[in-house]
Amino acid sequence: MYVYDSFAGFPKSTNNVDAISYEVVDTGYWRESEDASPPGTEEMLRREFTRRFGEAGWTIVRGMFEQSLVSDPLRREVAIANLDCDLYASTVQVLDHLLGNRLFPDGAVILLDDYNCNRANPRFGMRRALRECFARTDGFYDYSEFINYGWHGRAFFVHRLGDSPNPDAGNLDAGYLTEGGAR
Questions:
Q1: What domain range includes position 12?
Q2: What total number of domains does the chain contain?
Q3: Which residues pair with 181 in a beta bridge?
Q4: What is the model's pLDDT at position 171?
Q5: In the list 101, 129, 143, 167, which could disulfide-bond 91, CB 3.0-4.6 Å?
Q6: In whole angstroms, what is the distance from residue 91 CA to residue 101 CA?
Q7: Comparing C-alpha atoms, which of 65, 85, 64, 82 is closest to residue 21?
Q8: Given pLDDT bands bounded at 50, 70 and 90, which one contains residue 172?
Q9: What is the reported pTM?
Q10: Which among 67, 70, 46 is positioned nearest to 56, based on CA atoms?
Q11: What is the 3-class SS of the chain, one letter each residue?
């Protein structure tokens, strides 16, 4: 398990998508440094993870995504990703890292905690980031809706089309199937 968090609240909204979004302009909630974790949160998480999971099998990486994904990048496949990035730019940074490094296996699940924020407008936030980041994979990845949770969240299945079996290819001996059935 990997947890990436700034513990310092939101980064400054420097791109136009975030800077004019409803959550920044109308509510002011996603402004720079808003929603910072209380002092001691990271240490509390470390104690709790150690109690529940032991000393190994989990990592907490502190920092803004643009730095932490470079200094301590994920290198292993990710079966379930819970993105509570809020902002468009932060979501793009995480999705570009995961998709660009092909870290999602076929059938992975992405949970987007703030998918319906910004009045669920597709020009903003996680809705826009999801669409744009998957489009940049040039068809290697696709996604489909899985479930909604709360009023704000939505989960998606990730489809790794670039190197998964293709029943439309017409080649029964493509390393996955033979005439007698599955290998």
A1: 2-182
A2: 1
A3: 178
A4: 64
A5: 129
A6: 15
A7: 85
A8: low
A9: 0.88
A10: 46
A11: CEEEECCCCCCCCCCHHHHCCHHHHCCCCCCCCCCCCCCCHHHHHHHHHHHHHCCCCCEEEECCHHHHHHHCCCCCCCCEEEECCCCHHHHHHHHHHHHHCCCCCCCCEEEECCCCCHHHCCCCHHHHHHHHHHHCCCCCEEEEEEEEECCCEEEEEEEECCCCCCHHHCCCCCCCEECCEEC
Pick from 132, 130, 165: nearest CA to 144? 130
For residues 135 and 118, what is the distance between their CA atoms, to the nearest angstrom?
Answer: 21
Interatomic CA distance for residues 137 and 42, integer angstroms: 34
Name the residue with tokens 């609240």.
Answer: 9
Buried/exposed 108-120: b ≥16 CB within 10 Å, e otherwise:
bbbbbbbbbbbee
Q: Residue 166's domain is classified under what CATH number?
A: 3.40.50.150
CA dihedral 14→136→65→81, nearest 10 degrees, is 130
Beta strands 141-149 and 153-160 are antiparallel
Place of tokens 């980041």: 133
- How confident is the model at residue 180, as a pLDDT? 46
**What is the total residue count of the chain?**
183
pLDDT digits (tens, 9 = 90+) for 86-131: 899 999 999 999 999 999 999 999 999 999 999 999 999 999 999 9
> Is the alpha carbon torsion for 117, 119, 120, 121 positive or negative?
negative
